[in-house]
Every structure is written in structure tokens, then in C-alpha cells.
UniProtKB/TrEMBL annotation:
Native organism: Sporosarcina thermotolerans
Entry-linked InterPro entries: TOPRIM_dom
Domain spans labelled Toprim: 4-92
GO term, biological process aspect, one: rRNA processing
Domain of life: Bacteria
One Pfam family it belongs to: Toprim
Name of protein: Toprim domain-containing protein
Length: 113
């Protein structure tokens, strides 16, 4: 683990999209679909001293998983894509960069143009 920040996303496509925008080493964890409170705790145990960022899709399944994370980790910071894009993987890079910069992540400058 290279950072004290961790981003949790739903799937591998979300992770790849964020990795392309980020200009700093960040651990990005995929839930790979439906998760239980026990699975969440197990998945995040190695990251208990990190700042958690939740970045799920703006759809029904994303909101269900987000609700579980809000209960299990109320201190986590929630990032939201615009509803018009619905999914993190379909959100334009420039929009992702703006969302990440707002939370003090370093992004590649070409995504700010």
C-alpha cells in the first residue's frame, strides 16, 4: 500500500478508469457486485488506518452498496458521479478529474483541459 487513501468501486472497469486519471498511487478496491456487511469488514480490514473514499455508480445497485458502506463506515467520504452518466466507467475523464480534485487527489493535468 503506497498511500493512506483507498477508493472503493464496484468493478474492474471503474478501477481502470480511475487509475488512468489519478497521478498518485492509490489503492482501488473492487467490491465486484453485491457485498454483505461481513464481506465489507473483511475486505477493508487491511485498510483500517486509511482514509476511505466510496465511489459507486449512480444507479440502484450502486446506491444499495453505498448504503451498506454508510452503515459500516460512516466516516468514509462518498464521491458521486453525475446521474446523467449513471456509471463511474462511463463518466468522462474530465468530470472524474474534477470530482477527484475536489477531494484533494492528484490527477494527470491532461484531464483538466
Amino acid at each position: 500500500m503506497d498511500s493512506n487513501k483507498v477508493i472503493i468501486v464496484e468493478g474492474g472497469s471503474d478501477r481502470k478508469r480511475l487509475q488512468r486519471v489519478l497521478a498518485e498511487p492509490i489503492d482501488i478496491i473492487c467490491t465486484n457486485g453485491t457485498v454483505s456487511p461481513y464481506r465489507i469488514e473483511e475486505m477493508l480490514m487491511p485498510y483500517e488506518d486509511c482514509d476511505l473514499y466510496i465511489f459507486f455508480d449512480a444507479d440502484e445497485s450502486g446506491e444499495k452498496i453505498r448504503t451498506l458502506f454508510k452503515r459500516a463506515y460512516p466516516e468514509a467520504i462518498h464521491l458521486y458521479t453525475e446521474r446523467v452518466y449513471r456509471q463511474v466507467e462511463t463518466t468522462p475523464y474530465r468530470t472524474l478529474a474534477a470530482i477527484l480534485i475536489a477531494e484533494n487527489f492528484e490527477v494527470h493535468p491532461e484531464f483538466l483541459l
